[in-house]
Amino acid sequence: MIERCAERLLRRPDIAPIKKVMDTNFVLNSTKGKLISENFDYEFSGISTDSRTIVESQLFVALKGENYDGHKFICDAIDRGAAGVILEDVCLKSKPRGKLYVKVDSTLDSLGDLAKSFRESFENLRVIAITGSNGKTTTKEMVSAVIGQKYDVLKNTGNFNNLIGLPLTLFNLEDKNEVAVLELGMNRFGEIRRLAEICSPQIGVITNIGKAHIGNLGGIDGVKKAKSELVEKFGAEQTFIVNKDDAMILDIAANTGCKKITYSLHGDADVRALNIERDGLSSRLFTLAIGSKKRSVRLNNIGLHNVSNALCASACGVAMGLALDEIASGLEKFEFPSMRLEIIDSAHGFKIINDCYNASPDSMKNAIDELSELKSEFKKIAVLGDMLELGKDAEKEHELLGEYIAKSNIDYLFTYGDLGKLIAKGAKRSVNASCYHDHKSIADQIMQVAKKGDVVLIKGSREMKMEKVIKFIEPQE
Q1: Are residues 325 and 384 in the same domain?
Q2: Are 216 and 191 contacting, i.e. CB atoms less than 8 angstroms apart?
Q3: What is the CATH number of the domain that holds 201?
Q4: At 413, which helix (H) or strand (E)?
């Protein structure tokens, strides 16, 4: 996973401009690297991992992985004005004078070490770190919207939630930033621990424990263990935002000695949702209760799980000292990211629920529930792609999803991918299900079946690119 992300980062501009001073001593002290050039004082204007986009006076970090090697591009970086290089291998026959060269054991580790030192130079910064099996990005964005009602916030964007992207995000910190809201991603043990070490959060969030990435973690207990790394070193001065609706998170919380703020959709907690209603396909209505205070809130999304995400964001607001009205205002202003239960009015008269961003067994079931519970006399059509990174459980989880769909109110099921066939197999006893090998064929079938007023849910793992189905239905001019 790290290698694939690094490869993507090296294929596009990824430059982190430095607002505070990062000089030679800072680099050497942070990385514990060996100086292999003449010692001189230099201040760097930024950090880059992409030789093609580096600009004058930046420091180039030659990342190295299984399928790429940034060392091959050191000369290119220098030609484009790099003032220094962090490298693992001394691969230059002659080093241009006037440049800083620091040899380290791991350039990836050194990138993180630099970011850790840089983050620590912002003594008054508060960091909220968010991880979980589902909903990390939406929750991160929602927390940012809430906290932004009172504070200046830096957040990571896109897929900058890993051992490369998180450091590059931190290098964008400025003195004006009061809070950093950071999503932490992982698919193996140790990653969350390292990310937490780099960003040093005061507030930690685990949205939920589910079956995403179980292929690398040996099952749901492995996921729990990996996610718990976020708060394993939390002490009395740090705060854990606890989802009381998740038994595994409650178990993690029981073994931490930090402050805790709880939230729940269903039971007693510090932050609660009451009177939850759905307003058609446009929004969710609920009463936000924080202690004895209450306020009605309208979310611009239909997902019940997003009410839970809103409670999480509210709990973060409580931890940061926001008033109820400030929290509610942030929630109501929040615009949900694309491809997360996004409603599209098709030119053909039916509605599309675009939930194509990603998929896991839990998020698939949530999406099916949203479609199934619609009170409508019109047809409900589910279009589902493979769920990836499930390891040895992949076939079983797809069959179980099919059986879950068989008990729902879905009228048609169209699947895409080798594993998608197993979803169709599990659902066929009560749902009109069929499999396809390309996006266009699915789009053509939808056009034949879907009529005015019908609702079509489209979802799958990111690599299945299920949004292509929508592009065939609604071609851009």
Answers
A1: no
A2: no
A3: 3.40.1190.10
A4: strand 412-416
32: left (phi over 0), alpha (psi -120 to 50) or beta: left
Convert the pLDDT of each residue in 51-98 to its tens digit.
999 989 999 999 998 888 999 999 999 999 999 999 998 877 667 778
Domain boundary among the residues 333, 364, 388 is at 333
pTM, entire model? 0.89
Taking the mean position of all CA atoms in its chain, how far away is CA 202? 19
* The total number of structural domains that make up the chain: 3
Residues 458, 415 within the same domain: yes
Site of tokens 């060996």: 34
Distance of CA 197 to the CA centre of its chain: 18
15 - beta bridge partners? 48
| Rounded alpha-carbon distances, angstroms, from residue 203 to 48, 218, 237, 261 | 29, 28, 9, 10
Distance CA 339, CA 348 (A): 20
Look at residues 390, 387, 388, 347 and name the one whose alpha carbon lies nearest to residue 367.
387
- One domain for residues 386 and 447: yes
Give me the CATH number covering residue 457.
3.90.190.20
Domain of 146, in residue numbers: 122-333
Whether residues 88 and 226 share a domain: the answer is no
Q: How many residues does the chain have?
A: 477
Q: Which helix (H) or strand (E) holds 242?
A: strand 239-243
Residue 300 lies inside a defined structural domain of this protein: yes
> Cβ of 425: how many Cβ atoms within 10 Å?
16
